[in-house]
Amino acid sequence: MKDFKVKDLVITSLFIALVYVFTWVVKIQLPFAPNGGLIHLGNVPFFLAAIFFEKRVGMLAGAIGMGLFDLTSGWVMWSPMTIISALIMGYILNKLNYPNLKFNNLIISFILVAIVKVVVYYIGEIFILHSFILPLASIPGNIIQILVSSIIVLIVMKPMEKIVKQI
């Protein structure tokens, strides 16, 4: 980590906080998924960090920000899935989009991220719920969560590019 500068630490910390707050404040409980299910907007700052900054920034912002949310809000059993999926999702978003952002790569990365989210949570919930069937109820919520976040990211992409160039 010798090439991890103070600026990187500050940006990473800021995005960890943004991911946590967006996950905590902007969330919708799903009545049809096991244990309620949750759609949140924490993925928006997470995706932006992974797309616009060095790989570690996005991966850590997602894993720590959402992992802390799970640990502090009654979703403790889901925290390993959250951390694992966020690390993989952050890596994918970064590899396909940073530093040369292209629309097609962005769409492909959103699709891959949705697949990762669904697969990791499905496998994790098999162990939590002791069923291969019950975790299927979480799939629509996971897809909706990624879809909504992806659309918002597409909307704020241009203003974010301008801000990042100034940093």
From TrEMBL:
The chain crosses the membrane at residues 6-26, 75-94, 106-133, 139-157. Signal peptide: none annotated. Pfam families: ECF-ribofla_trS (PF07155). The keyword Transmembrane helix applies. InterPro entries: ECF_substrate-spec-like. Keywords: Membrane, Transmembrane, Transmembrane helix. It comes from the Bacteria. This is ECF transporter S component.
